[in-house]
């Protein structure tokens, strides 16, 4: 067994801002072309999920091809003011920055990464650059940033989020990890110490099959990490899943410059640099033919690819469903919760009157990162395009995909308050949403939420296009953003096995 201890990341960060159908449980993708080379991004089928690359060379080719990805959300023409801003900072008029500014009201994706930054004790130019991008560090953040980037890589690989995967590749290379060491993340965890391997298993399971996170997995992590560090780890992985869904849902093209990690400023990225950067670096013979152990392989490989398949158990119904919801009230959190007084002290007026929600008591271990997470979860509820009833329906649909019972029970309560009928709740669990109970607009938006929740690349271009036609680009962008946060909420709360009342 080879064990490698990796140093912390040292680099400057320049953030890169810039017919409706539901998926079948065993949906497939037709892959054409030579087995050693797969279709480029542009000619892929708009009505089918992108295929899953199995080998490292295939993965790299996807990273490169997605530089030419067609964005999904339409934008209005640039105004004169936009052009002036772009002259000062080209990122201000980039695709991602514009859809976030126009349709969500914020330009940065840093809100997804409340738990993703470096420890407050890290005092160097690199840590300061990250803080400028993500916000101040929490004094209780303690996990090594390089270790968390490896967790981010694993989440992005499990979700097949090529944009995020490309950025983490660049970060890890700049951090000093070799090509083979990064390849080992995909197929040979024996390269890493035991305390990282148990965390890798948590990241993989929580990302792709959150319903399979169990006591054994959490207890294996508790051998090496405190409860507070577990919250940090879970919060970070949940945030990585959120940003994966944002990037893939919105169809953000891959960065042409590797995210500019390693550069000192955006102004130093010359046009020539964009042409020079490539993800098509050599893979050693040792790893070239190895199949990924991170991605879900639920379909027969076709060359270097496999069909993208979402395999989750059939949804519970009737007595079985009610039993799962009832169990939330009597279960005990796997992770120690902060008491009511300290939670109110940390979050102030963000905490509702009466009973303090368990999820707030979980993240109250972190006065800065936790507060940022709470603010974000409350902020998405103020969506201009999504009614309270539609929000509750999305909460239910997304929680059901993840088997997140704490979130599902909260969602059911919100649907009742919004006046949703029992018949509608049952209909939302069906493979196709009923047209007689849901408007065409809301149905198209729920399709986006359901498929994006299941797996970021299960959502297809045609489904997003249909939703844009019926609901408009602002509503679709807000649903993608909203769903990303709900997926994070589900993972954090269910991995902790939160009860739905205080004191447990």
The main β sheet shows up as: 3 strands, antiparallel
State the secondary-structure class.
mainly alpha
pLDDT < 50 stretches: 10-43, 261-274
DSSP E strands, number: 3
CATH secondary-structure class of the domain at 318-495: Mainly Alpha
Average per-residue pLDDT, rounded, comes to 85
Q: What fraction of the residues are assigned to beta strands by DSSP?
A: under 5%
Count every helix, treating DSSP H or I runs of 4 or more residues as helices.
22
CATH architecture of the domain at 318-495: Up-down Bundle
Radius of gyration: 22 Å
The backbone outline, from C-alpha atoms, is globular
CATH topology of the domain at 318-495: AhpD-like
Order of helices and strands: EHHHHHHHHHHHHEEHHHHHHHHHH
Q: Distance between the terminal alpha carbons, to the nearest Å?
A: 41 Å
Give the strand line-up of the largest sheet: 1-3-2
How much helicity do the residues have? 40-55%
Question: What labels describe this entry?
Answer:
single chain; 504 residues; mainly alpha; AhpD-like
Structural commentary:
50% of the residues lie in helices and 1% in strands. The chain is built from 22 helices and three strands. A three-stranded antiparallel sheet has the order 1-3-2. Strand 2 (301-302) and strand 3 form a beta hairpin. It starts with 51 loop residues before the first strand and ends in a 9-residue tail after the last helix.
List the helices and strands and how they pair.
Elements: E1 52-53, H1 56-65, H2 80-88, H3 95-103, H4 125-134, H5 145-159, H6 162-174, H7 179-187, H8 194-208, H9 215-222, H10 227-250, H11 271-276, H12 285-288, E2 301-302, E3 305-306, H13 318-327, H14 340-347, H15 358-363, H16 369-379, H17 388-402, H18 405-417, H19 422-427, H20 440-454, H21 461-471, H22 473-495
Antiparallel strand pairs: 1-3, 2-3
Helix pairs in contact: 1-6, 3-22, 5-6, 5-8, 5-10, 8-9, 8-10, 10-22, 17-18, 17-20, 17-22, 20-21, 20-22, 21-22
